[in-house]
Amino acid sequence: MNGNKPEASKKNREQTKIADQNIFSPILGFVQGILPNSDNNEKPGQSNDKEMSHMKVLVESLASGGRTPMAFDPSKNPNSCDQPFRSQMITQFLEKNGGRLPEELSYLHDENGTVPKPTCAIDAAKRGVAFYSMLQTTDGHWAGDYGGPHFLLPGLVVAWYILGRPSNMISAEHGALMLHYLRVHQQEDGGWGTHIESPSTMFGTTMIYLAVRLLGGNKHDEWVKRGREFIKNEGGAIMTSSWAKFWLCLVGCMDWKGHNSVPPEMWLLPNWFPFHPGRLWCHCRMVYLPMGYLYGYRFVYSDAETDPLIAELREELYCEHYDSIQWESTRHLVAEMDNYSPIPAFMIFAQNILSLYENWSIFRPFRDAVRKKGLAFCAEYMKAEDQQTNFIDIGPVNKALNLVAAFHAAGSDVNHQAVQSHIMRVPDYLWVAEDGMKAQGYNGSQCWDTSFAIQAIWECKLLDHFPLLSSKVWAYLERSQILSTETSKASPAYQYETPTSRERFYRHVSKGGWPFSTSAHGWPISDCTGEGLKGVLALMDSPVVMAAVGKGVLKSIEPSRIHDAVNVMLTLQNEDGGWATYENNRGFGWYEELNPSEVFGDIMIDYSYVECSMASLTALAEFHEKFPRHRSGEIKLSICRGKEFMKSIQREDGSWYGSWACCFCYGCWFGIEGLTKAGESHSSATIRKCCQFLLSKQRPNGGWGEDFTSCYDKDYARKGMECYGDEGSGVVSTAWALLALSAAKCDDVNAVRRGVQYLIDRQLDCGDWPQEGISGVFNRACGITYTAYRNVFPIWALGRCSSVYGSSLVQPGAEDK
Predict the structure, then answer these.
(1) Quick check: helix, strand or coil at residue 776?
(2) How many CB atoms lie within 10 A of CB 665?
(3) Can 527 be counted among the known catalytic residues?
(4) What's this model's pTM, rounded to 2 decimal places?
């Protein structure tokens, strides 16, 4: 699975590796020139110019992630390394610190250009933390690129176009950056993938082509023509997947008869009914909620019949004349490249029955009566979702759909308060990197990345070595706990936390949880709550932070708030002993027989996952260690049940499948971490079997590597991270494997030593690590970017391995050299 090139050549990999090693040579020797009191003979104006020039080169080099500064070559790697954001943060850091880098990186100020090698694992970790500290934002979190999927930005673009192209939603400058992003990610065959490392799909290509044209892309430009040719070569837009067809229907480029029914009256079924939309996984539920509303009204862009661009698109997207297409016969058509999760026969049968229901006049009196009530409930439910999330909504897909629905409900008044409230939150989803402007898979991964980062620093025993960093994280986690601060309790969202409202709108308890992104987002998640709580508990070990809390410099997190977080996790445990994501599992496995998406797998219900189970179980265990009297019996039982669940889902080969990242190294870390924290013996067969699995995957260079194919195929990538790693290895996969092995106290010290040395060797001179392949995934079929992972997890692995193995990590005989 590759983004822009069938295979990255060995030559290119070697060239990249050389660039990684030498990228900082331009900054060594002249850094002294930007420092205060530096000697020079230039005139004042010339000195200023020189200092600014040196500062610019320094910042770009530090932020480059081992690549050419501010350059992007998707044929080598379609993953951005976040150069613009990192440049901005490093610039701010240097300006506040008189041009000086952190003390741990002071060797970069050496005029003779020598860069000492790290003396040990913890030395490399310190450098990593020092570099990462420069990226911390003012409010205490770390931000990063959370893009990757190609179907997110087009939804926002379609919504913008339907609303009349308001400039306060997408400005001309934003549109140009978006077009740049879409253009640079086009593949050699003219198409676009579902995500940046995916081969071209009709889903990705149709969505992006639509966005390109709506943003002003010229149909005569060669790159646009190649996109159009790809679509027509695959049979036209009638062959794309159902989600793309829905957007085409909204904007007037497809007749609603070409889309299967999404009946809003399903919400009127009694809650006890075996298949009820309230039982669906919340991401699925919150997408099909506005879909049902818009389908029920057969909403179409008001100027579709007179807009010349829509007329052109109707011609460009199809192989036959638009007016001649028999839309009813196209409902089930889908290109093989999109058909990752083929619609089961029963669902096809159900869709055909619903087609009769929609079109036969005999059903009309009943349909009209129940539809009116169903639409009214959908409108009420969407309003609740908007207010509970401060108009952010759970994700970018339902964000765009809810925006269009709010526009319809407001009588197409773009200035209506609800519509404007939506528009104000669109920037929450946008991100700019060196590849342009994109839509993220969420409104960021701030709390998630920050919770991991502070635990990594805690395990390195460096909390008080970086006191300002630690204090800022405490302040951020305090503010981010959902519905727990005075500000959040005064918001409309808090009114929906009553049992009556939660039951009506199918929401689990939110108060006390931690989010994936921000408190304003309002959706707590089991693993985010667990990692957030562990971050707080780790910071309680910092004398500096606790002293600041005691003096009132930092706000305290009262015990009742900690108890609320514990309550969220205890109530989220499923009957099988595991933990799902946002809610308890409410449905049944056979719901997947009704999955209508084609492009995603396992989206219908909220399953128990190894990641969510580990995060929740270990958080409860660590809480119990510090607060043994609170709900002691319940917590012990919960941990015991969680432990048995995690053992039950271990695969025959000893691994665990990671559902939210790539993939088996990640899953193995969560599996071993959870079990050992729950009391499993390090010598147990379960732990040893997983260790053997990981050891069997170590590559000759000492690292581990996987790419997206592990997730897609549910089988370890046989060639490792072949295209975007280092001889098949990657720093993130290696860090996950080392975290697992060290948690297990694996006795193959040589394997651990080689892995640690690989991380040290791959570390850049500034303490950063290179950006490699995509590391995140969702619903098995879509990759997503986490640029923070290349920093957080190598730091964590180095710190833990140093703690567990100590001097054993030193190569025998190395101390004599």
Answers:
(1) strand
(2) 29
(3) yes
(4) 0.92
